[in-house]
Amino acid sequence: MAKSAPAPHMSPPVARAVAVLNFLASHPEQAFTLTEIAKSLKISSATCHNLLISLSEAEFVYRTMGKTYVLGPALARMAQASLAPALVMQVARPEMRLLADEFDVVCSAYQLVDGESVIRERAAALSHVNWNARYLLNTPTRAPLGGIYFAWQQDELDRWIAEANPPLDAAERDRLLSSLGFLRANGYTFGVRTVPLDDEAVAHALQNRPEMTDYAQTEVVPGDSYNLAYVTAPVFGAPGKVAFGLSLAGFVKPIAGDAVIAMGEKLRAACDRIGGFIAGRAL
């Protein structure tokens, strides 16, 4: 197996250590002898031996009783720490701050807890520091609310729709499914107010009127105008599994369709970067 080229800024010893760890990580269900590792990475047995001793002492690799090597417990501890909610929020907060300031809105991170959406973090633009986000706390996720959690697995989607209260009729179900198709295709979704956004006072009042929001949007037309209630996107912790969502809210005037698209794409990109961190891959 050919070794991958080290990054230009890495010193040769660091590059070799990284190559060993990447090699073992790419074969997590196998154990390798010193000779097999040295041959695969095209380094001398003496160099590989010294490297494995150092990595073993640091617990980055583990030498089995069969004199083979696997990834060590230190990496498992590091991986576990990287998934800690507090650490994930350290990554999410700067993304949220940039989104809130760029679009002059409130950006919230919310999570599904016992069937309800609960806000975990919030970043507000300077113009929105006094906005109240309590209406989003402990919101039941019955259809059509909470679609970003349930759009990815068919059994969960079927159960979510079946538990709608009041039940959805055929037309409502078809429109909701179409809106989830938009979410899957674009990586974000949005809701619009069913009354005009005339000024900031109206926008404030509508925070506590979820019944005046259409949650099943199926398209964005660039030339149209939208009385946005929110734009939201999922952060995936694993394929098809949503760790939490990011939403933008606090819109005080109609937004052009092309601006909605640009906003949604930036939100989706931020969520992808956070999800990449959780999954252990750089984006």
TrEMBL record:
Gene3D superfamilies: 3.30.450.40, Winged helix-like DNA-binding domain superfamily/Winged helix DNA-binding domain. Keywords: DNA-binding, Transcription, Transcription regulation. It comes from the Bacteria. Residues 74-280 form the IclR-ED domain. Residues 11-73 form the HTH iclR-type domain. The keyword Lipoprotein does not apply. This is Transcriptional regulator. InterPro entries: GAF-like_dom_sf (IPR029016), HTH_MetabolicPath_Reg (IPR050707), Tscrpt_reg_IclR_C (IPR014757), Tscrpt_reg_IclR_N (IPR005471), WH-like_DNA-bd_sf (IPR036388), WH_DNA-bd_sf (IPR036390). Pfam families: HTH_IclR. GO terms for molecular function: DNA binding; DNA-binding transcription factor activity. One of its GO terms (biological process) is negative regulation of DNA-templated transcription.
